[in-house]
Design a protein that fits this description.
With about 325 residues, this protein is of the alpha/beta class. It is about 25% helix and about 20% strand. The chain binds S-adenosylmethionine and iron/sulfur cluster. S-adenosylmethionine binds next to strand 3 and strand 5.
Length: about 325
């Protein structure tokens, strides 16, 4: 699919729930989100139907996200349904890792190809403080389980936050020396609870390059600029939506857990897909893609979306 600006769109991020077992301070309010009725959230069948229509329109990669996808009942059925779609090249999932110890092997068996695990700190006390309820050891156990289950080239996603984890970047880089993982530092985006945080919390990706001059540039993949420490088994990625606006290379659209297609994470524009089937559903997906905004305006102002990240699908 081509959008209205000529970009190829072949990547769908499909949110399977807005609920989460964590309350990360930059993502969700302390009280969480009001639990919706079962019927407000896409059913397993709707998730697969929307995925199938997107693949017929030209999507080749689907990432399941949330909220926390592993708390979603029926997640494995969604994976199996999507994996069976002819034309889908990659089925990926982003998780906080808390339930991966039990779920990694079933996810693999259900056809998930790749995992991203979010991990913002390697210190147990900070982990508990940032997630307001999580335990670092659960995520570390989840990462081990993912490797045991056969997930290769794991990606660890770390939101870089000034005054919180900027003193741990060396520890994260060290992980790549021994492990074939990609540690990706993501710039904090001003939205939801962190929209009004102090400027000093928002560090550019360049911070990593200045602090670790030994990093050597390697080929980029997608929106991540990639680097490697000499001799390291793994790699380092910088995802810089603010300092290196990559909207021109964006290939993705999103569907929220309540069935709205969003061309951009940060725009207010949403296209309802629920209740549509077959050709009608495809037409709305194509129409949403055509209306995908040219870019976001995060460098001028906070995100335009009234949703928090867990309500979109990060
Ligand atoms: N619960 C899962 C997880 O944490 O991986 C999936 C959903 S979460 C919303 C997806 C990703 O968005 C996480 O890596 C999280 O750190 C990131 N994220 C949330 N709010 C963000 C923000 N304001 N700026 C940058 N990344 C953010
Ligand atoms: Fe939950 Fe992920 Fe948001 Fe943290 S970042 S509150 S784990 S959805």
């Amino acid at each position: 699919m081509r959008d209205g600006c000529g970009r190829t769109i072949d990547y769908l991020r499909l949110s399977v729930t807005d609920l989460c077992n964590y309350r990360c301070r930059y993502c969700m309010p302390a009280e969480g989100v009001a639990k919706r009725c079962h019927g407000d959230i896409l059913s397993v069948e709707e998730c697969v139907e929307i995925g199938a229509a997107a693949v017929r329109c030209g999507v080749r990669k689907i990432r399941l996200t949330g909220g926390e996808p592993l708390v979603r009942r029926g997640l494995l059925d969604i994976c199996r349904g999507l994996r069976a779609l002819p034309g889908l090249e990659e089925l990926c999932l982003t998780t906080n890792g808390s339930l991966l110890a039990q779920m990694a092997a079933p996810l693999r068996k259900a056809g998930t190809d790749r995992l991203n695990v979010s991990l913002d700190t390697l210190r147990p006390d900070r982990f508990a403080a940032m997630t307001r309820r999580g335990r670092l050891e659960d995520t570390l156990a989840g990462i081990r389980a993912a490797e045991d289950a056969g997930f290769k080239n794991l990606k660890l996603d770390t939101v870089l936050i000034g005054g919180f984890n900027d003193d741990e970047t060396g520890d994260f880089l060290n992980l790549t020396v021994e492990h074939p993982w990609e540690v990706r530092f993501i710039e904090l985006m001003p939205m939801g609870p962190c929209a009004e945080w102090e400027r000093s919390c928002f560090l550019p990706g360049e911070y990593i390059l200045k602090k670790h001059p030994a990093l050597r540039r390697i080929e980029s993949k997608g929106v991540a600029r990639r680097y490697r420490l000499p001799g390291a088994k793994g790699t380092v990625g910088l995802i810089s939506p603010l300092s290196h606006d990559f909207c021109g290379q964006c290939r993705r659209v999103r569907v929220t857990a309540d069935g709205k297609l969003k061309g951009c994470l940060h725009s207010r524009k949403e296209i309802p897909l629920r209740g549509l089937h077959g050709a009608e559903l495809e037409t709305e997906i194509r129409s949403g893609v055509l209306q995908k905004p040219l870019r976001h305006y995060l460098t001028d102002r906070p995100s335009d979306t009234p949703r928090t990240m867990n309500q979109i699908g990060g």
